[in-house]
Amino acid sequence: MSSADNRRIVREGRRNGGGKEKGFFQKVHSPPSPLNDSLEGEIQAFLIDEDQLHTYDDLTKVNPVTPSTVLKCLQARYSVKVFYTHAGCTLVALNPFQPIPDLYTLDVMKEYHGAPQPQEFKPHIFIVAEEAYRNVQGQLEPVNQSLVVSGESGAGKTWTSRCLMKYYATVAASSSVVKSQDTVERIERRVLDSNPIMEAFGNACTLRNNNSSRFGKYIQLQLDRCQLLVGASVQTYLLEKSRVACQLANERNFHIFYQMMKMATDEQRKEWKMPPGQCFVWLPNSEKTVEEDCFHETVEAMVHLGINTERQRQIFRILAGILQLGNVNFYSSTDESQPCNLDEQSKDFSQRAAELLCVPAEELQMCLRVRMLKAGKQSVLKPCSQAECSMRRDCLAKVIYAQLFDWLVTFINNSICADKSTWCNFIGVLDVYGFECFQINNLEQLCINYANEKLQQHFVSHYLRAQQEEYVSEGLEWSFVKYQDNQSCLDLLEGSPVSVFSLLNEESRLNRVSDAKTLRVRLEKELCDNANISWDKFSKEPHFTVAHYAGKVHYQIQGMVEKNKVFISSSPPGFFQGGRQRKNSLESLMKILHTTTPHYTRCIKPNPDCKPLTFKKEEVIMQLEACGIVETIHISAAVLTCPAVVSQLDLLEDQRKKILSQCAFTIQCCWLKHRRRRHHARHQSATLIQAVVRAWLVRRCVQRRNRAAAVIQNTWRKWRVRLLKNTYRILCFLLSSIQKPVTVRGWPMGLALASAPSITMSLTATGFQKMVSVMASLHLPSQRGAYTVKPNQFSQELASIRAQPKGSVKLHYQRSPLLYADRQPDMKSDVTGFNAILLEKTL
Ligand SMILES: Nc1ncnc2c1ncn2[C@@H]1O[C@H](COP(=O)(O)OP(=O)(O)OP(=O)(O)O)[C@@H](O)[C@H]1O
């Protein structure tokens, strides 16, 4: 593809809604964009080969890159039960909605973990896991890793996070090493045991997912010096506590309540003050049974984590107290100056609630029905209206539940967190719930979408922007791909001096019953300059509309201030809550993300009904557009195919010395850190490694650099010093091959290597084997139109040589017809001639 082609894609993007107002990421709920005329032919040509579409395991190989071609490939893969696909720096995970045998077994884990080049294997979540793990092993900055798993509800984030945790609990299991096996084994078990507890208390059955996480989490897996798992910690965000007191039709409360009800013994019911047959307003749809209603599993996990029987009793009593509270009703008093009344039943429920929550019954009733107004130093008691009483009851329940959840998280952390002195690096798994847009949206959606805006900003700045800037700094001719910067939307939500959240917080602090219309007027008055907010003049309900990166969302203002008050009042320090804390908590998450190497996995929900193996194109395209996957692919792909990059290899060569000296320092520091001897040899070799990697980087995407360096460095570290010389020679050879740019599509390095008639060098048998693996590791996974040499080809070709006596080994590369299949005729003499000189020089 030419640079004109690149630009064409940019233009297509713009025409389809690029630019600030209609960005790539903008449309979520609109059908796929109409195709550009000039590209339609190419698209058709690409799609005509239907049988081949499923073979695109990296979407950067798709040409042209458009929503429709990408979609078709994913669909084709899904139909042949292939669920993972690379998309440049992102892994796309399609939810199969059915268990896939043998996809996540221990053997598969071992296979990916043990492979010299896991990325050569079929795309899999284990590749992401392994890549992050090897980055830690390689100690390349930033050493700590973040695995960002995103997607809409039901897309498979929790599943993916669990897979990742299991992977690390297996491959980084500290129990595999000596020491007191019992203790260490417990760590992995405990880390995994945190899942059922968090899910019981934080997940619920929703219309979109029977086991929907109603909170976000960042799990930090702590690794020691030997990259073994020694502990973990969990940070949670945005628990949807409103669910405790209010569930949408056909949805349920948090699983734990149903688990309790279904499995309770008579004795427990007695303890929870629940006479047989008592129903609870806050437990709708309890006849619906889901897989997750597994009380024993939750209790078992609690035991493993050290929550003793007495603590468990206290927890369940609190939960029972919340349920009793939900049955309390209020009736307006005939005398307005008097608090609302409670009928006999409600009195009874509130009595039970008070006992279970260990508070005086009178006080509980008072605080629900009367509020205290402060006027200067004086305080006045004012009876609440019926609606206010109900609101206060709901708020109290939410606050209690949030505190309980928070307590559990702290307990879990105390149980699984390793002492700071025992771990030095971490791999974080971030599972946050995706962008939400319902018919009625309120504060919960605003917070979730705000968090998603922040994550999108991180993705944009970290990948889309950073990668392009790096291309430019490499001296590559690069026309910027337009992407939508969501800063103005973030300014609207959190900016200073005024923003949606600042106004909301101000309203919440006023000591009066909030009025939706007043807030609506203030928002309009103060924020009218920001193009991301708008109002439907004809709407009767007070609302505002925010143009998020993923689409427009209408937010209902009614009830928003009251909810925000709960956010504020239930904010223990450090928890993601109202006002400033909400911002700070997200900021701290962003800070972690910025200081780690990120890996992105985008989970896609192929149909809204969670049906196995059903692929609805409209659903998928909306999700692809919402996360800007096409732009990601485009940026990653363009650098592989843009001839401008290849032609600039000369330029790179001019810069080589400068690059070498820069790299030399870095890598030398790295070697010193590992307390190796023979700095000089290492320095030279390392310099060359860096140069090779650097050249590789230019042709491939920047993201591969870390992997390349890690692979080489690891291999290097394991080698005997004696082999350094040979490595050095090989790398000289590789480097030299890069020096001569070959201006055909594809890989000069691979080309030169493959076309070298023979090389003679001294190697031991093991040295030789290792050299093969390094050579193989320097190769790229095969790509469309590129010239690749697969590792197995190497080993096949070299198999005969292995038998030769130690000492002098002659490598003979056979010229497989396959390797020369797409070479231009005039290349042959060039390459051969070139290699002849090269060999002379090298050997
Ligand atoms: N790789 C997979 N293989 C088999 N089933 C899967 C896979 N990924 C997801 N599922 C199925 O899809 C369901 C929904 O997945 P999951 O709960 O992980 O979604 P989610 O994105 O975390 O949703 P939410 O945001 O609502 O928590 C799971 O319960 C599981 O049945």
Automatic annotation (TrEMBL):
PANTHER family: MYOSIN (PTHR13140), UNCONVENTIONAL MYOSIN-XIX (PTHR13140:SF289)
Designated gene of the protein: LOC117743098
MF term (GO), any: ATP binding
Myosin motor domain sequence ranges: 54-565
Family classification: Belongs to the TRAFAC class myosin-kinesin ATPase superfamily. Myosin family.
Keyword vocabulary terms for this entry: Actin-binding, ATP-binding, Motor protein, Myosin, Nucleotide-binding
Record keyword ATP-binding present: yes
Organism this protein belongs to: Cyclopterus lumpus
Signal peptide: none
Name of protein: Myosin XIX
Biased composition (Basic and acidic residues): 1-24
Residues involved in ATP binding: G151, E152, S153, G154, A155, G156, K157, T158
Keyword field contains Amino-acid biosynthesis: no
Superkingdom of this protein's organism: Eukaryota
Listed InterPro entries: IQ_motif_EF-hand-BS, Kinesin_motor_dom_sf, Myosin_head_motor_dom-like, P-loop_NTPase
SMART domains (alphabetical): IQ, MYSc
GO cellular component: cytoplasm; membrane; myosin complex
GO biological process: actin filament organization
Membrane-spanning segments: none
Region listing for Disordered, in residue ranges: 1-35
